[in-house]
Specification:
Elements: H1 26-34, H2 48-116, H3 121-148, H4 153-183, H5 192-264, H6 270-330, H7 335-349, H8 357-365, H9 381-406, H10 410-481
Transmembrane segments: 53-73, 240-261, 267-291, 457-477
Biased composition (Pro residues): 1-25
Region (Disordered): 1-37
Amino acid sequence: MTGPPARVPAPVPVPAPAPAGPAPTPAQVAGAQLAPSPAHPVRPVPLGVPGRIRVITAATVTALGVLLAALAVGGGTAGDGLRVIGRDAGPQVVATAGLYFGLSDMDAQVADALLMGKEYGERRRAALTRYDQRRAEANAALLKAFELSGDNAAERRTVQSVLDGLGRYERLAGQALLLDARSGHPAGSPPEDVVGLYRQATDLMRQVLLPQAYNLTLESGTIVRATHDDKSASVPTLRAVVVVTGLVALACLVWLQFSLARRFRRLLAPALLAATAVTIAAVFGGVSVLGRNQLDLRTAKAEGFDPVLTVARARAISNSMQGDQSRYLLDKDRADTYEHTFLDKSQTVFYLPAGNLGAYHARVAGGATDYLGLMGVQVAGAEGQRVVAAYRKFQEADTALRAMVRDGRTGDAVAARLGPVREAFDAYDRTLLALSQRHQAAFERAIGSGERALDTLWRLLPFAIGGLGLLVVAGVWPRLKEYR
């Protein structure tokens, strides 16, 4: 008897082989293992207390660094302004203004020497000595102007041109003086050949050398004005930057102090309190120094440099004006021209509306006070009034001089020119010099005050940088060590 047939198991399905391809790289395998599950996104690891303290400390140190950098930039900007006005372009302007005076006085002394003739031997030698002195001063002023011109090619060419022209002037003046000494003429107008040589010399001086010297003054004055305007705008801005960065730094210090107090259950960190005090002192000190420099810069220009330059120009023009008196007596053919130039220069210095010299003399003698011109704004105060009084006496002496010429008293006119008229001018010139010296003293005080304030800032700033860094570290480091 046969049994039931055996069961045959169903075949197990075999999966189809995967298509051949490159094996995954180890980096891909590692990336697959580290890939986040869509249901569990990665969250940033919290910084913790030490991390937050480090972040706040870094922000505080950065704010303090910006504050100190603002102080350094502000101090450097103010220092540049003081240097340019007080030590560089400013002295150059004064030197070139002195050059104008020296050149004009050289020409005036030559005119006086030619006018004196053989009757004023001692006075003639004194005039020639003064001529040599002014020539040396002019050469020194030119050398100083050349040194201070730096890399400015235009100014260097101008200085060289004045030097060349001065050499030509000296040759013409020397020839005129030599012919004059040989002629032995009495006081008054010298021989025609002497007058001809002097005309060439004085035309060279008045038409070439003096305008070039004045151009040097204008070029240097432009640098001073541009520097003043630039620093007057930038220093207040930098002062405001110091205030803002100082407030930010103080806020960061308070934030750091508060964070340490809250996390570590300590009320105060003495080192951070000291850093806060140093920061406050740095802000107030920096703002004070920059404000002081801004005021000193304005004072140096408005009460020092500008008046000094104005009075220097007034002295130079006045000196040339009194030289026109000698030229008026020296050159009869150009007497009317020199009288007109005397009036023009008088009105440049002390302007009063007048159609001719006689009308101008009358207004000055009448006690006019409404002067304009160069000295119009310089005559306030007792010292200014002394200048006006001396100027009035000089113009009265000129009135008497021209009256003598009209009456045909040429010898008396020459004697007056070399005596009372010259004395009146010298008295007037001394008042101008005293006024200039007062303004020069104000200029030097302002520059010195600004430089001393900046010196204090530069001495203290490195200590502030080092001190703040040490204090912040001393306030934070012990707290961070507690987490080690």
